[in-house]
Amino acid sequence: MSNELLKVENLEVQFKSGSTVTKAVNGVSFTLNRKENIGIVGESGSGKSVTATSLLRLIPSPPGHISGGKILFEGKDLLTLSDKEMRDIRGNDISMIFQDPLTSLNPVFTVGDQIMESIKLHQKVSKKEAKQKAIQMLQLVGIPAPEKRLNMYPHEFSGGMRQRVMIAIALSCNPKLLIADEPTTALDVTVQAQILELMKKLQDEFNTSIIMITHDLGVVWEICHKVLVMYAGNVIEYGTVEEIHDHPMHPYTWGLLDSQITENIEDHEMLTTIPGSPPDLRQEIKGCPFAPRCSYTQDICFSKAPEMVEVKEKHFVACHFQTKENRLNRKERSTHVRAVVKS
Amino acid sequence: MGKYILGRILNMIPTLLIVAVIIFLITRMLPGNPAAVMLGPQASAEEIEVLTEKLGLNEPLYIQFFDYIGNLLQGNLGNSLTYNMPIIDLIMERFPNTVILAVSALLIAILVGVPAGIIAARKQNSIFDYAFTTFSLMGVSMPIFWLGIMLVLFFSVNLGWFPATGMGSMDEGIGDFISHLILPSIALATIPTAQFARITRSSMLEVISQDYVKTARSKGLHEFFVICKHAFKNALTPLLTVLGLQISSMLGGAVLTETIFSWPGIGLLIIDAIGKRDFVVVQNMVIFIALIYVVVNLLVDISYKLVNPRIKYSSGKGGTK
Ligand SMILES: Nc1ncnc2c1ncn2[C@@H]1O[C@H](COP(=O)(O)OP(=O)(O)O)[C@@H](O)[C@H]1O
Ligand SMILES: [Mg+2]
Q1: Ligand 1 in contact with A47 (CB < 6 A)?
Q2: Residues B282 and B212 placed together within one structural domain of the fold
Q3: Which residues form the ABC transporter domain (chain A) (predicted)?
Q4: pTM of the model
Q5: In chain A, where are the structural domains located?
């Protein structure tokens, strides 16, 4: 069994409406090994969710469609599978949890029904065994009195509890890959920490690889082995967590790092934001997509798109000035600062 | 829930009483002495007088009213002089025929309207969707009597496929029965079919882009179950409301349809009885229809709970909050 679980090559996803084409994902590549976690970070609109949903071929079509690339899962290209084969993978080998637990469970079915549905679909078990398994899953995700909870409806659960239920559904068939699209963003801070803790614990138990989409870099440092930094549908930096944490290279990644609220930030310390906003994906982008917002630009940035270069082992960057030979000096964070407003 | 249903049943009484009062006043306001009309032009003045007394029509209005309400509360519906039988037997004879017509129309409406609405929602903005929108709009605005006459002209008179009037008999075989049933059912089903289709489309469109539908797909469910189980059950609440309204208004539609197709149900009976000034039949049939109306509405309200676990019933004044 090869150690490589997922290899995405040059994935392209477009949305067509009338004559306009939105290039939401524009050549994303990465690999993920078994039991490894990868974080996908980037501002909102950078194509993280579209990338993740494409992996399960769940892009709403029309208007969306996967216009190029390969998604090799255990060596098979998912894009060449039949609908039936793809359904056998969804919820079984690869499952997904979404951002908003308040809307991602079906309000008119009991929680038990929703967990058992997956189990009955993918495993040859009796109704009774499915129920047993559902109770066990609820227990695992830390829901008290699972036998009783099984017959309750989602509206009788809190947000954090519902996300636990979603995790129970996602893990009920022992998937090899779990895609978590901002699983904690919609939750209270304290609940966020509990859910993350739970995911970490369960990943050890289930040996599942996780694709963690987040804009909280803290989460990435904590649970991921690799990071993919996305901007305007492109990967602009990709590497191991150690590399990206200690030696981030792309000016956009620097911006992301500077704009994180860290624990040890002082009251009067400054927090930077990246000026400007991401480009309109409906228009052809010439040059580097980040150039209009970058404070290191030269002429070439506006005329030629930078290639992805492996500047160090396991560290790829797409910037004209970050290559094997050249390095860009990171400026002091002085520009575009705003005070942290503490309430 | 039990308390809620009891409350609702008690609530029906005033509704039915109001209907009783109104229909009483209307039948008494019809021009002409009912006794004279019932007996026909050849009747003598004495005969008319005897019948008037027998029917209690010489009593003051309020006495007539209390007699009538009193009998009603005892479940005593009285006898029809023109049909020469107890009202209750008349209902037992005619009502099943109306039920047959209404149920087959309802089946057509559900089996055609709901799938059409689902497909239109799935293929929003396709050619099918545009055709669907046009036809369903035509359907809801179709006058039943006009449609009924057109159906008769085309399928009975021109093509000779189906009989134009009457109700077939099972004694003649199921074929005879069904061929009589088809045209009136289609006439009665047209408006509800279009209504179901439109409401299904719009509520499915609302539901289809929800996150839980995405969750259902991500579990590996077949698209059929994603749509027909996860999405559709969420779209059911508005559909149930329309179902209740349509069953109720089908009672009105049945009167028209039965008249056009001479279908021997309670609709035709009422029209007949009005012509014969048999106010006893008219009164009782109207109250009977009102009773069906409120019962259907109660059943619909109860079934909300079955499709939507978030609805909690408060006992007492009814309503579904
Ligand atoms: N259903 C859709 N229809 C049209 N465009 C879409 C759709 N979903 C996403 N997009 C486009 O894809 C871009 C990336 O979206 P997304 O992947 O959701 O970003 P994020 O990184 O915040 O998850 C959006 O800016 C939008 O232009
Ligand atoms: Mg997103």
Answers
A1: yes
A2: yes
A3: 6-257
A4: 0.78
A5: 101-174, 250-342
